[in-house]
Design goal:
Blueprint (H helix, E strand, L loop, with lengths): L1 H7 L6 H13 L4 H11 L5 H13 L3 E4 L7 E4 L4 E6 L5 E5 L2 H14 L9 E4 L1
Length: 128
């Protein structure tokens, strides 16, 4: 699966990229430090710099997205349909939630008011 995605996006299929993508898929939302800790067990020669470099190239190719939440390190997820995130401030669990019609109405209202052409929506709701 990941081999096809990398090939379609003109990125070389490497063991490092495959390991990183597998970790992102496994955890859904994962930080660079967590990726590093998990992949170094099976790839002890992989450096943190290699992870940064590969995350940047896969982000540029729109294979992964960087997501930022208040008071947390940025995390990475596989690109998927636009959605919002629910974040538990107690345990840190992150849940994806589909955007509904009320969010689309908000997008339309913001476009009308601001004249911005909104390309994407990033919403994080924090609670317990």
């Amino acid at each position: 699966m990941f081999e096809k995605i990398l090939k379609e996006n003109h990125l070389k299929i490497t063991p490092q990229r495959l390991a990183i993508l597998k970790e992102i898929q496994k955890f859904g939302h994962i930080s660079i430090d967590e990726i590093y800790e998990n992949v170094k067990e099976s790839n002890p020669s992989m450096s943190l710099a290699t992870i940064y470099k590969n995350l940047a190239s896969m982000q540029e190719a729109r294979i992964i997205d960087e997501v930022k939440f208040p008071n947390q390190k940025q995390r990475y997820e596989l690109v998927k349909n636009q959605h919002m995130h629910l974040v538990c401030e107690k345990c840190g669990k992150i849940t994806d939630m589909a955007l509904n019609s009320s969010v689309e109405s908000l997008k339309t209202a913001c476009t009308d008011i601001s004249s911005y052409k909104i390309k994407e929506i990033s919403i994080a709701m924090i609670g317990i």
